[in-house]
Amino acid sequence: MSKKSYKSKKYYKQLVEEAGIAILIDDEKGNFRFGNKKFAELFGYSTGGILKKSIKDIVHPDDVERVMEIHRTRVRGEKVPSNYEFKGITKDKKPIWLEIHAEQLREKDKIVGTRSFIWEITDRKKKEEYMVYLAYHDVLTGLANRWLLYDKFDSELTHISRHNLKDILMSVMYLDLDYFKDINDNLGHNTGDMLLRDAARKLEKCVRKGDTLARLGGDEFLILYTNVTKKEDIKFLADKVYEVFQKPFNISNKKINMTTSMGISVYPNDSEEIEQLIDNADKALYVAKRKGRNRYEFFSQ
Predict the structure, then answer these.
(1) d(C-alpha 192, C-alpha 198), whole Å
(2) What DSSP character marks residue 45?
(3) CA of 223: how far to CAs of 94, 135, 249, in Å?
(4) ∠ CA 73-77-83 to the nearest 5 degrees?
(5) Catalytic residue among 138, 211, 219, 282
(6) pLDDT tens readout for residues 64-95
(7) How much is the pTM?
(8) Would residue 219 show up in a list of annotated catalytic residues for this protein?
(9) For the chain, what is the total number of helices (H) and then of strands (E)?
(10) Alpha carbon of 77 to those of 33, 111, 153, 207: distances in Å?
(11) Which tens digit of pLDDT belongs to each residue from 194-221?
């Protein structure tokens, strides 16, 4: 080897080792053959320790089968995306999000593994997940919003249709807090916001895991009560909500009495469309308010 060639290879090796991006070479089974300093640091290993590992050691259990199938397909010579995202896991079991660019590694026209460039995208994924969360949740209370409730209703309709569940009922409960405006006007919006959050927590204790509790805005809430077989079950939930609001709220060491009025519509009796069910529940809510508040009413034609 000439002095010039030796210096060139030495420079190339140093360039790869000190690169600011993680570089990996593995064999056809996914065992690591080379990992640079950045790659080892990314997963919390020493450069020597990382070489004793394989793809399965750095991929989160949620993603390991998918990533291994992509790897196996690539080394078979079949076409798969060069770039994709996956959920990784560090030596200390911390989940991280990663993006990878992988290519076939060939020796004498035979595929012997892959070479990959990997970079962390955890911060970006968290921002994306938060944006999705904001699209379907109420920021103040953490509850679902109208659009998530619509999605849940559509999912329930699909389930009912697929299994031909003709006797299953659903209900929409539309409720608001009685004289909530007086709280905002007399005690301030901060107190009002705290009361709304506490009201959300009270309502969460009333519903089952499969039900959907949503905040529409202001002091208005919706409950989508699913998988019901008789109207008495709906009345039982309404009574439960009524009872929890008979106890005063404790806001900043102040006892605040706050009741709720509710309107209830039932699927499929009152409508098979979610928007019409909400509209009918709203009409029933108006009746409950007209009759003195602190009560619930079922929609009636």
Answers:
(1) 10
(2) -
(3) 36, 19, 21
(4) 60
(5) 219
(6) 999 999 999 999 999 999 999 999 999 999 99
(7) 0.76
(8) yes
(9) 11, 12
(10) 20, 7, 45, 53
(11) 999 999 999 999 999 999 999 999 999 9
